[in-house]
Amino acid sequence: MTQTIAVIRGDGIGPEIMDATLLVLDRMGCGFQYEFVEAGLGAYNNCGELLPSATLDAIRKHRVALKSPLTTPVGEGFSSINVELRKRFDLYANVRPAITFPNTKSRYTGVDLITVRENTEGAYIGEGQQLSADGEVATLTQKVTRRGSERIVRYAFDMARKLGRKKVTVVHKANILKSTSGLFLHTARKVAADYADIECQEMIVDNCCMQLVMRPEQFDVLVTTNLFGDIISDLCAGLVGGLGLAPGANIGTEAAIFEAVHGSAPDIAGQGIANPCALLLGAAQMLGHFGMEQDARRLRRAIVSTMEARDRVTPDLGGTGTTETFAEAIAERVNEQ
């Protein structure tokens, strides 16, 4: 069966890493077809819209999108195109794995954890932002719902069970934020009771950050609210070499968007030196979403093998290769796995 994917090539280095990613997917023989659509600065320059209706229609039709980094013009449109996409399609689960890779500038080995972040509510959404007339007082509404908390925690436990993970850590600040974080924690406890086969750990967010830096190997799956998840997932990326190796999946009941979580890096755009691994790893998440787990493992192993060989990797990984040669090296190895 042929699957069509909405493809957003993105801004800055986005087109380069997307071309590299599609090269590898095509070489794998996954049978994907692509509908190319626009968003971000490129779309704004071409048609005056950051999120054209044709793009939204394509995501709605195909239910899956692969997205490169986007640039939101300063002073124009949405505060964040990514947040807007999450709201439009109710992409409530943000899934961010952090895995140790060879020959990176990481201080740790053996890290293999996943952050599951609630994606549609909480302080990060920025609802009710106001600045007083005199500019002295700023306010923000933080809303957490029982429904939102229940479905993200259940997603984390279901994912842990499916992947054979043994522990879920519920990260909160209920000792201080007794209403919002308290509701999240109390809801998480009720959900955890349905999963006797998986250990449930509770941890206050500041202690969690300290423990991640001290002993990341103690964690397996972490689940938390939107703003805490944004911070923790980037911290976890730092444990394994940075955002250049950080993919992200945004999952809802009607659509899913897979991406590299780093920025569009306009300072190196067009130079052919961008590391495509984050988007390739996002593509591996997409393969898993389609039930193509064997292909997802094959792609990850090819990335690891290429990083071990270090023959055609990009300068950020200590090589002299280009985005294209890195992709070619992975594509050559992917059918050997």
Automatic annotation (TrEMBL):
Classification via SMART domains: Iso_dh (SM01329)
Matching PROSITE patterns: IDH_IMDH (PS00470)
Keywords per UniProt: Oxidoreductase
Domain Isopropylmalate dehydrogenase-like: 4-330
UniProt enzyme class: oxidoreductase
GO terms under biological process: isocitrate metabolic process; tricarboxylic acid cycle
Gene Ontology molecular function terms on file: isocitrate dehydrogenase (NAD+) activity; magnesium ion binding; NAD binding
InterPro entries: IsoCit/isopropylmalate_DH_CS, IsoPropMal-DH-like_dom
Top-level division of the source organism's lineage: Bacteria
Entry keyword Oxidoreductase: yes
E.C. numbers: 1.1.1.41
Stored SUPFAM superfamilies: Isocitrate/Isopropylmalate dehydrogenase-like
Pfam families: Iso_dh
Family: Belongs to the isocitrate and isopropylmalate dehydrogenases family.
Listed name of the protein: Isocitrate dehydrogenase
